[in-house]
Design brief:
Blueprint lengths: L14 H15 L14 H10 L3 H15 L5 H34 L5 E3 L2 H4 L13 E4 L4 H8 L15 E6 L2 E6 L9 H13 L6 E5 L2 E5 L2 H17 L5 H14 L5 H10 L3 H13 L16 H13 L5 H10 L4 H19 L4 H19 L6
Length: about 375
């Protein structure tokens, strides 16, 4: 396995990356044209590995089967089995998480609480086939009622799964599904950006400003269109700042925009992004949706081609990182960092390199996020490491 610290920042896209992205676009927009990128000699195994890393294997697996059927191509038997299994597993996972969501909704509603579903299964409704989206955890916003909600759900949760280590949310696990009960939705640290977003969240994320939708027969509340759009963007942006993101999150954002771009108040959106110093990040990441995923430029509000160099850098970050960058950090720590003081120094250098790359996306925010990390980690270097 390659050393994840050695990133080829401006390397051209590989054939496997182009093919995987082609399959994702075919899945998102229900297109049949592969542009001549796919053939019987395609390295399907490499595409599967990359798709799993990018959290889009369910979409890609179903699309490979559809492409093979349309073109009359005979897939290798093991690959056909892997695609059928990938499609089946995605459907099963979504059915399971939807049942857990319905149970959580029922338990909280019985006690008079009105949780607002954030991203996840709420965003899946925009997919042509929601059951193929890779399912994750369940995030619900409860504000000041988060602790009460945790107490209601604890008798039904996995033993010892309750965690209260974050100011943002409480954690529980029910039937193998992670629940995050949010006190607030958007991360906060000492910067103008999150002060602005926190004030905006308190105005926007309210029960009386929410919408009721049906997910697999269960009625749930989801945020306003504007909040859903901006929140998914901020979620992507923050995780990129910290090292990586899966393609699934970009697919979510693209499909939200595809369904609601005509209803977005662009003046209000631009005012918020400028006030929060996020317009540059919005436009750099927006190029991901048009350049990688095929969202029409006219469907992306405030589209810009200004930041081409930053876009190429972030494109490489997206294609080379795994789920939220956690896979890369863990892999590097286990395989390359060593032990003791050497491990500490190498992990610090690894983080510094991530920091340098994220400067292209949003310089001030990158510095704000990582300065607190250095404040904690540098003194740790000089503490004695147990042998």
């Amino acid at each position: 396995m390659s050393n994840p610290i050695k990133l080829s920042i401006f390397a051209p896209m590989t054939k496997v990356e182009r093919q995987m992205l082609c399959l994702v676009r075919m899945a998102l927009w229900q297109q049949d044209d592969d542009g001549g990128l796919l053939s019987a000699e395609t390295d399907w195994h490499a595409i599967r590995i990359l798709s799993e890393k990018k959290a889009v294997w369910g979409l890609v697996a179903a699309t490979i089967l559809r492409w093979a059927d349309l073109t009359g191509t005979d897939l290798p038997e093991d690959m056909e089995d892997a695609c059928m299994k990938g499609q089946f597993n995605a459907i099963q996972q979504n059915q399971h998480i939807n049942k857990v969501l319905a149970e959580v909704q029922q338990l909280l509603a019985h006690e008079g609480l009105s949780p607002i579903l954030l991203k996840g299964q709420g965003v899946a409704r925009f997919y042509p086939r929601p059951e193929l989206r890779t399912a994750g955890d369940i995030d619900v916003f409860l504000g000041s009622e988060a602790q009460r909600a945790a107490e209601i759900l604890m008798p039904y949760a996995e033993p010892d799964s309750y965690r209260d280590k974050s100011a943002k949310h409480l954690n529980l696990e029910m039937k193998g599904v992670e629940l995050e009960l949010h006190r607030f939705a958007i991360n906060r640290y000492k910067r103008k950006t999150t002060r602005v977003l926190a004030q905006w969240e308190s105005r926007e994320l309210r029960i009386d400003n929410s919408r009721r939708v049906e997910i697999d027969g269960c009625a749930v509340l989801v945020p306003s269109q504007m909040f859903e759009l901006v929140f998914v963007f901020v979620h992507i942006w923050l995780h990129l700042m910290k090292g990586g993101i899966g393609l699934r999150q970009l697919c979510d954002w693209a499909l939200i925009l595809h369904h609601c771009h005509d209803d977005i108040d662009q003046e209000e959106l631009e005012r918020l992004l400028r006030e929060a110093d996020l317009l540059r990040a919005w436009q750099v990441l927006g190029k991901m949706l048009t350049g990688l995923l095929g969202l029409p430029e006219q469907e992306f509000p405030l589209f810009s081609n200004r930041y081409k160099r930053a876009y190429r850098l972030v494109e490489r970050m997206v294609l080379e990182s795994g789920r939220f960058g956690q896979n890369d950090r863990k892999t590097y720590a286990e395989q390359h960092a060593g032990k003791g003081l050497l491990r500490k120094w190498r992990m610090l250098v690894y983080t510094l390199r991530i920091h340098i790359r994220t400067m292209a996306l949003s310089p001030r925010e990158s510095f704000a996020i990582y300065s607190s990390y250095y404040w904690k980690r540098i003194p740790y270097l000089f503490k004695k490491t147990p042998s």
